[in-house]
Amino acid sequence: MKSLIIGVIKIAKLIDGKKISEDIKNEVAEEAKEFKKTSNITPGLAVILVGENPASKVYVSSKQKACDKAGFYSETIKMDEDVSTGDILNELHNLNNRRDIHGILVQLPLPPHIDSAKVLESIYPEKDVDGFHPVNIGKLVAQQECLVPATPSGIIEMLKRENITVSGKNATVVGRSKIVGKPVAMLLLNENATVTICHSKTGDLRSATLGADIIVAATGIPYLIKEDMVKEGAVVIDVGINRISKDKADTALLEWRKEDFEKKGVTLIGDVDFLRVEPRAGYITPVPGGVGPMTIAMLLKNTLKAAKMQAG
Ligand code: NAP
Known about the structure:
About 40% of the residues lie in helices and about 15% in strands. The chain is an alpha/beta fold.
């Protein structure tokens, strides 16, 4: 769909991640039903949750609810904050060998005393629905069939469903984490974009983003991507999730998110200065309601894919 012209103010097309993710969840539920009919297998997801991190608890409970709705089997293994790496590895050994569990994920972050790399490497690659295992990362680079991290694959899915051409375009990814920045850059490259990856040591971020047809911002820094860093008509994908309290908000944000501040005293914003960037962009994802909801939808998709792969 073309951008709307309202008076003299150009408004970017909002990419509705909530709607797209609902569509994907419904498609996955339908596909899982068909798969069950033909194979008698119910996709199963196990989540290991260590400690009492409130945000992690919310994420895990959302994942469980989404599994229930899709007709999947799901199980959460809760472990105490002071658990050892060995205890987690034992649990993973058990889950790796269970036939009713096709996907395993360990909710991050883990407490600092845990060897996170060892934990993630102990999940069987074919059950690694988060796609963080080195085997899956290697396969992604080698463009082989694999389980791809959910947030990055959700971004590509959004672009596809909005019919946004990636091939031949300049894409700039801001952030180089293993969870978002690096895999999304690789996926964009695999879709034939010319990709620039920026990070905290990048000398001239503005020129890197200004030259981009597609910008993916994944830093966790509010207002990092400003209006003068975005080319007219660019596609702006905002992955950042930043919690802003009322006392830290400027006047524009206070007005825009008045309801949130009145009800909760906080609001969520991304890495993009949305109010000022939106009139320049061709497409833009909101926060919340953009990339965020895609992650769980893609996790379900990965779990079903894992179940199908394991069924041969
Ligand atoms: P992360 O591991 O902290 O990585 C942040 C990245 O941003 C790093 O690569 C860092 O560079 C880079 N960076 C920091 N300051 C910068 C600057 N001034 N200019 C350019 N780059 C800069 O974070 P993450 O896990 O990728 O997450 C990023 C954001 O996405 C967070 O807000 C997170 O909450 C959100 N997120 C959302 C979802 C979702 O929507 N479902 C999923 C995952 C993450 P260095 O490598 O040089 O330090």
